[in-house]
Amino acid sequence: MPNSDQNFIDSNSSCRGSYYTMSSKKASIVMLAAADASRFGESINIVFRWKRSLYKMIWRHSLVFLVVYFSLTALYNFGLEKDNKKHFEALSAYFARYTRSFNWMIMLGFFTNTALHRLFTMQMTTPGTAKTATIFIMSLKQDLPEGPDIVDQYARWVVLAWILTFRSVCKPLRDKFPNLTAIQTSGILLEEEKRILQRGGYPTPRPLIVIEWLLLLLKECVKEDRYINKSSHNKNVEAVMTFKKGCSNIIKFSTQNIPYAVIQAVIIVVYCFGVVTAMARNLPKFDNEIVRHVIGYFPVMPYIQFFVFIAWLSVGRAAVNPFGNDDTDIDVRKLCEAHMQDLNWLTELYTKKLDDVFYNLP
Amino acid sequence: MPNSDQNFIDSNSSCRGSYYTMSSKKASIVMLAAADASRFGESINIVFRWKRSLYKMIWRHSLVFLVVYFSLTALYNFGLEKDNKKHFEALSAYFARYTRSFNWMIMLGFFTNTALHRLFTMQMTTPGTAKTATIFIMSLKQDLPEGPDIVDQYARWVVLAWILTFRSVCKPLRDKFPNLTAIQTSGILLEEEKRILQRGGYPTPRPLIVIEWLLLLLKECVKEDRYINKSSHNKNVEAVMTFKKGCSNIIKFSTQNIPYAVIQAVIIVVYCFGVVTAMARNLPKFDNEIVRHVIGYFPVMPYIQFFVFIAWLSVGRAAVNPFGNDDTDIDVRKLCEAHMQDLNWLTELYTKKLDDVFYNLP
Amino acid sequence: MPNSDQNFIDSNSSCRGSYYTMSSKKASIVMLAAADASRFGESINIVFRWKRSLYKMIWRHSLVFLVVYFSLTALYNFGLEKDNKKHFEALSAYFARYTRSFNWMIMLGFFTNTALHRLFTMQMTTPGTAKTATIFIMSLKQDLPEGPDIVDQYARWVVLAWILTFRSVCKPLRDKFPNLTAIQTSGILLEEEKRILQRGGYPTPRPLIVIEWLLLLLKECVKEDRYINKSSHNKNVEAVMTFKKGCSNIIKFSTQNIPYAVIQAVIIVVYCFGVVTAMARNLPKFDNEIVRHVIGYFPVMPYIQFFVFIAWLSVGRAAVNPFGNDDTDIDVRKLCEAHMQDLNWLTELYTKKLDDVFYNLP
Amino acid sequence: MPNSDQNFIDSNSSCRGSYYTMSSKKASIVMLAAADASRFGESINIVFRWKRSLYKMIWRHSLVFLVVYFSLTALYNFGLEKDNKKHFEALSAYFARYTRSFNWMIMLGFFTNTALHRLFTMQMTTPGTAKTATIFIMSLKQDLPEGPDIVDQYARWVVLAWILTFRSVCKPLRDKFPNLTAIQTSGILLEEEKRILQRGGYPTPRPLIVIEWLLLLLKECVKEDRYINKSSHNKNVEAVMTFKKGCSNIIKFSTQNIPYAVIQAVIIVVYCFGVVTAMARNLPKFDNEIVRHVIGYFPVMPYIQFFVFIAWLSVGRAAVNPFGNDDTDIDVRKLCEAHMQDLNWLTELYTKKLDDVFYNLP
Amino acid sequence: MPNSDQNFIDSNSSCRGSYYTMSSKKASIVMLAAADASRFGESINIVFRWKRSLYKMIWRHSLVFLVVYFSLTALYNFGLEKDNKKHFEALSAYFARYTRSFNWMIMLGFFTNTALHRLFTMQMTTPGTAKTATIFIMSLKQDLPEGPDIVDQYARWVVLAWILTFRSVCKPLRDKFPNLTAIQTSGILLEEEKRILQRGGYPTPRPLIVIEWLLLLLKECVKEDRYINKSSHNKNVEAVMTFKKGCSNIIKFSTQNIPYAVIQAVIIVVYCFGVVTAMARNLPKFDNEIVRHVIGYFPVMPYIQFFVFIAWLSVGRAAVNPFGNDDTDIDVRKLCEAHMQDLNWLTELYTKKLDDVFYNLP
Predict the structure, then answer these.
(1) Domain layout of chain C by residue ranges
(2) Under an 8 A CB cutoff, do A21 and C258 touch?
(3) Helix (H/G/I), strand (E/B), else coil: A51
(4) Which residues fall within 8 angstroms of residue B218, CB to CB, at 6 or more apart?
(5) Do the Cβ atoms of B20 and A247 come within 8 Å?
(6) Residue B43 predicted with pLDDT over 70
(7) What letters, b where the CB count within 10 A reaches 16 and e where it falls short, cover A174-190?
(8) ipTM topping 0.85
(9) What is the distance between the terminal CA atoms of chain A, rounded to a whole angstrom?
């Protein structure tokens, strides 16, 4: 059955997309494929890719740099007379002194390193909805008549809290759910719940209201004696608090991640470096005609230096705010859909039995 | 209902302010907005912002630097005669040798990196009042007549311990609550409790006294059999001990964070570097008139070098003491108000039932 | 009994291979042996090893570098006339200015450091199948008639989820198990289970389906009262969720590890550096005949500089994707076999008693 | 009541000293005050402070450096004749080549970074006595007649184990408690216990003996059924094992922290750098009279370079051994006193009730 | 009683050796003494120590370096004629260009930093036998007739698993216990157990067999109802699994710690640097006789540069494999003896009561 196997591979790689909170299915396949291939040959492939690439991040900066560079070359070659040429040469040599700015690179290196480190920590601790809901489902008695309703409600509320949290840090999700009505349309929010969330004068923020509902539901379950073990109550409270902590960390990450001033400092430094590099050309030192042409018209080396700075800066800034619209950002919309799909699965988990899946069990 | 949706967005972004222990609502919106916008165009915006900016941190230093620099230029151009000019040139060339001090930058880089790393660790482990109180509330039996009083007391004491802890590390909070009477006015402290806290001869510090009350209240609850599960007692003791540990870590962070000598070392190094950079100008090497004018009157490059150092130092120092009055610091006052607002919500959590919120539950 | 002792050492070192999730037995013995030997003498050995070595990684790059280098030398010595020689010398001196690119090395250093750090974190948190299964087995009552079947099923499913997870990130394992039939042949998957996994229209990914089976089986066990302690149910749910989290982290590591753009940036930088180094030769500065011959025909120093860059890049890239086919990668096939062998051992653990092993117990 | 408020502030800041395991009350106030003040003006204050300062650490080294430097200057100016002056100039120029030793600084930077990182980890995991004792007290039944005695014994033993542990790594504490009799005088050790600890032939170390007592006491409590919950027994055993682990980590930190060879390497490098810097002076390059006088008599720049190295080295070495007598070290004596004061408080915690503190409780 | 106090100090410092899993008692005392002493004076001591020192690590390399260096000097001074002298000078000047290889040092710095970081993590998570055994002992009922036997068996097996694990990574322990008979002689292994371990055809590695025994024993204890609490069973299973994880991490650390290729890269780089440094001497730049003598016969500066590299490399390599025979390695033999001594203490812990130690208890 080659067809089903082909199918297997496809659905398998897609599963990563929906289940394991991955961002972009396609991009990851590209990366994996690239990484799997022989490392020498395929380097070329990685380097020439455009999607999620560095080039998309920096082509505008590169363009500006090159335009400035060539304008100065044109000015020097055609726009200036003899005396002014001397002055130009002297000035550009003066700037050339500052192009080997290791200090700046050390600053930038630590900045990007810190940003990547925090991004990694955040990725590893992103709150998932599945764990909180699964623990709840597994701790309920199994033949409660109201069980399916409660489970559905609980799982839905967890996803709702997740959406409300990410909505406040992630513009694409805000575009997807511009208001509560949009969330209601997707089926995550009921009419009555929407009304409560919209009721004015609330001192507490919306995700907290939903988490309050979760806690109240847990209290109900204790009162109605719906748990298998009494000690499950504590476990569930803990799971909800952990989920809340996770949401809170996402917000903290978006707002307190790297001090504002650090980002300003590195941006200014990199832009200054760009300007200096575009102006610096050590003409007095090289008399050779060919070299002077290379300096004027093929600014490969200055551009590479600028490239290192702007690339590292772009990487750092993308890591500082990974919830944006760019290809390189975490695709929160996809993630959100995955969580919403898990909902159905989780609700089924309560009613299903192993016998429903397999027939010849011991 | 465009109005309510507008309202939704507002209250949603404000919720981050009150709930997720964020510092300054406005600043974070700015940051998020900045980060969400297209990254090329909006770089300009970030760079020109003033609030919470680097410029507020370093404008005084920059001013002093430029004043010194231009004074020396004026001295050289107008104040010195021929021989002294020679001496000045030679001296400034001598200093120019030391402006590329990578060693200093490596030291500074590790310092700021360490400071940012610890700040991040601290931010992620700041003790919250909500968790401790919620666990207590959720573990109580649900229809105790004295329940609401106990819950209110417990939650209030947790917030009180929080305030007393942060008061001792954070000057703005000390300004807000200059004495116990001020705390009492805010409703967190009762008259009787104030009297006990003020009673002289106490060998123990005040936050510890409040934590003792929490523990005694837990003992009461065991004795009066107020828990749903007996094992909840252990959980609650643990939660209180974790909270105490968190408070203790805040104090440790403020006082033992980075050794005092490290801060001295980097400050001295950066100030020395500033002085050297202001005096260094490689005049003998550049004969060209224009370049000499640029060196004298447009000290862009020396200033940028100084900028890198002073910016990185400022960032590091702000990270070492994040509880101050500056824009860049954590706004502990706002945080404190958020915790106090949570109080009401938490007290309600005990009495409220899910039926009170929704009417058509299973 | 010298024979059995010899045997002891052999099986002992092999045990690491099968049990402790090690990759290549032989390589590790080599490493340990190398490390155990006197450190001075044996340095030579490490350096000249080929398997899992740096050389295998970089010999292609080195070859290209040297070919380019010698071609340029030949061109200069035999292909160019007097004027062009001048131009060549000037150009290569111009490039020589850029070979001491500390900025580039700082960028590369942080990249490889980050990659190694994450690899280490991942290695330490790789999900193991033994823990999940052991906890389940140890929490079952001991004389259940259906016990052995359940234990076998549970352990098998854990291994199956492990394989399905690693199959999606690791090409060698995908080669080993190209489709579900191949897994079935190895005995991990039953016919019926295969049919369920192949059933189309499933919204959920395959490893999740298997984890769902595990959870359903746990529910069965609660219902049929198969646990020694009731509280074991919670422990087992937690163990499964931890296992799921581990699987999810593996996927995340493969796909979100280091941003795509970072890898592009460092590859471009290193290749540029290679080109620059191959073209740079500071001929004008050295008039001496011998030195010029050394520069032309024994490019030891330029090559070493290139070597540092390409070696560090290779190490970083191998750390970014450790699930490939290379010698240096984690040998997931071996690991997989080890997990499958553990299956038998785990199933026996349920039925065996201490008396079966020892006869004279208290 | 201004008096009591003043009192409040004082006792509040002192509380940090006794409770939150802080070292030196005064120093921390200075630091906090410094950090609270406006950051520009108060930089001057931090820099000119003497207590716990860098200067105390490095003034001896600085003195030696300057004496050597000026001796060489004197030798050159007054002790050498014309030919020898030439030789001196040539030699010092030769040494000047090596003063920009970035390699050395990178090594030193990583060393100090590692040392500070470990110190931070250690500070955050120092074992406290309060947690272990509080958990025990809170898990006892409340009206046991022997309760107060047991609680006192348990808490005392925890402190005793703490003292015996820190005594072996911290000289100041060894000076305070030169022998068991000194500990007995302080009331922590009873006569009988001292005799047991002194009994010869014990193969186990002393802190372990005390921890054994703790475990035996826990066994007693299980047997006599003194716990509220039976499961408290496990919690208490865990708490004791965690405490033991903490003690063990303190010892490990003192003895295995940074490999001995690393410290040797950095010390040698820094001292060599000092010697080189003192001898290097680039006299041939500077003909100007004034500059030569500055070089000879105002060695600001060489000293600053040496300063960076010696400061960073001192910081690293202080971080490697933080249990000494220096101002910058952790004040273990104060810490010890704080733990001993907690004893009384903890013993009271068992007997006290909330009614004893407040009279109008629900 | 000065005698007993003297005794107190001795046994106290020795206790660290046996209990807190320390390696070498003497070395640690030296280190502590060194660290306690006044830091200025005692620097000299640290630097001149030989045991566990850097010198032992690098004297061979240093010797080779110096021999090569002086041979080249001799060749230049006595072996070469005028023309060849010119060539030699030109060549050595060419090499001198490459001695300031910051790139190399950055690579080496990150390598050693990574190695030290992992060593620290490993040291902090080394599995101890005491915890696993103590938890078991404390959870048994107190008057079981078979208790002492079971406790002895359990504790012995834990130590046995520890030895079998470390035996496979640590050559000194393999020398101490060349085969199972040697372990049996030490009393850790019984005849019957040895026979089972030797039985051929076992697919599982030996430490795993012992851990299986532990699990089977736990099952026995549940069945025979030997626990105080039923929930202790779970705790014990967890403790065993944690111990197993710890053993597995030790193996992983030894074999997967730092990729093989990294070690090759840094070794090659450092050796190349050594060769380059030995050949480089900037003779053309220094005409002065004295300086040329210093360059030829007192290669202090080149050696120091080489020293930094080789020292840092040695430190990194010692951190990569800390289980060897060197002084600087962890003394696993001592550690092993300490664990074996703990055995007796642990067995006593079960039978002893507090009354046996103290007579006048409440």
Answers:
(1) 1-49, 57-125+258-320, 128-135+143-250
(2) no
(3) coil
(4) B136, B233, B236, B237, B240, D138
(5) yes
(6) no
(7) bebbebbebbbeeebbe
(8) no
(9) 30
